[in-house]
Each structure stands twice: as structure tokens, then as C-alpha cells.
Amino acid sequence: MIRWLWLLFACAACVQAPVPEPGVRIYRQACARCHDTGKHGAQRIGDREGWRSRLGQGRDTLLEHSIRGFEGAVGHMPPRGGNPALSDADVAAALNYLLEQSR
Q1: Which residues does the UniProt record annotate as the domain Cytochrome c (predicted)?
Q2: Dihedral of the CA atoms 78, 79, 81, 86 (nearest 10)?
């Protein structure tokens, strides 16, 4: 019996929590504070209708606004989600995640 318990504890110690994909991680760190709540007029993640109209501008335009920032009539998007340390690839990964969750 003790042998089985020992084996169970040994196996449990080897299990690690999954590491989120870069887009998920970056979204949570830089984007969620606005896109989860709609703060500053941000389009909320998961709002299919709202994202459909924005996607009409084209993904490249959305990426440019995400990287350089954007001041619109309704909302404000800070450059790189307010984190200047993010690379263009980081911003693209976060945008991909956001759009995937909003389809």
C-alpha cells in the first residue's frame, strides 16, 4: 500500500500546469484589462458582432492600430497595448488570440 502511495505522489510531482501559448499569455498581460471589460471603448473579447465590423477594415489595419495605437471616435488603443517592450510578433500573437476568441 505504501509503495502505491509513493508511486502516486511521485507521478503527481511530475505533472506540470500547461504553459499558455504566447498569444494567450500576452493577451492576459497587456490586453485583458481593457478588452475583457470594454474600458476606454475597447471592443470586448468574444463580441462577435462588434469584431465583425472591425474585421471589415482588414486584419492588417487592426494589427497596425494595435502596434502604433489608434484614437477613434468611440475608443482609444494605446500603442502595443501600453507595453512598449512587446515586439510586433507579440502584438500579432495577442491579436490572433483575441480574434480567434471572438469568432
Answers
A1: 18-102
A2: -160
Instruction: Read off the CATH number of the domain in which 93 is found.
Output: 1.10.760.10
The tens digit of pLDDT for each residue in 17-71 reads: 565 699 999 999 999 999 999 998 999 999 999 999 889 999 999 999 999 999 9
Could you read off the pLDDT of 1-28 as tens digits, one per residue?
566 555 555 655 566 556 569 999 999 9
Helix (H, G, I), strand (E, B) or coil at 92: helix
- Domain containing 41: what range? 20-100
